């Protein structure tokens, strides 16, 4: 009977060893999966930043130059429409209103001189 007790003990030790190996392999596989997932996320983030860089998302110098040029052009055009907004003030009996460069007043001035 001592041999059957010895075999039972060996089986018990072998089973415990097998379970330890299984848990160690499972933990190692879990760590490997987590590491691969983390590396994949990092690669995707870097690829996203690289794509954004290629498309010009980080080129702040170019967009600043273009709006400045566009802003300058409308600023030069604004004074021209501004006098056309002021004719409502010209009908007053001020002497300055008669000396304005409005084309409608010029022919009447020519008629008076002739």
Automatic annotation (TrEMBL):
Residues 1-14 have a biased composition (Basic residues). GO terms for molecular function: isomerase activity. Keywords: Isomerase, Membrane, Transmembrane, Transmembrane helix. The chain crosses the membrane at residues 35-55. Residues 86-114 have a biased composition (Acidic residues). The keyword Transcription does not apply. Residues 1-31, 59-114 are annotated as: Disordered. This is Peptidyl-prolyl cis-trans isomerase B (Cyclophilin B). It comes from Stackebrandtia albiflava. The lineage of its organism: Bacteria, Bacillati, Actinomycetota, Actinomycetes, Glycomycetales.
């Amino acid at each position: 009977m001592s041999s059957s007790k010895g075999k039972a003990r060996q089986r018990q030790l072998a089973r415990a060893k097998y379970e330890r190996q299984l848990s160690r392999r499972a933990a190692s596989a879990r760590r490997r999966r987590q590491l691969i997932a983390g590396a994949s996320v990092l690669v995707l983030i870097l690829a996203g930043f690289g794509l954004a860089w290629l498309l010009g998302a980080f080129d702040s110098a170019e967009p600043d130059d273009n709006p400045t040029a566009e802003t300058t052009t409308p600023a030069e055009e604004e004074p021209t429409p501004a006098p056309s907004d002021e004719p409502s003030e010209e009908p007053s009996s001020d002497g300055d209103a008669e000396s304005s460069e409005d084309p409608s007043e010029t022919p009447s001035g020519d008629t008076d001189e002739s």
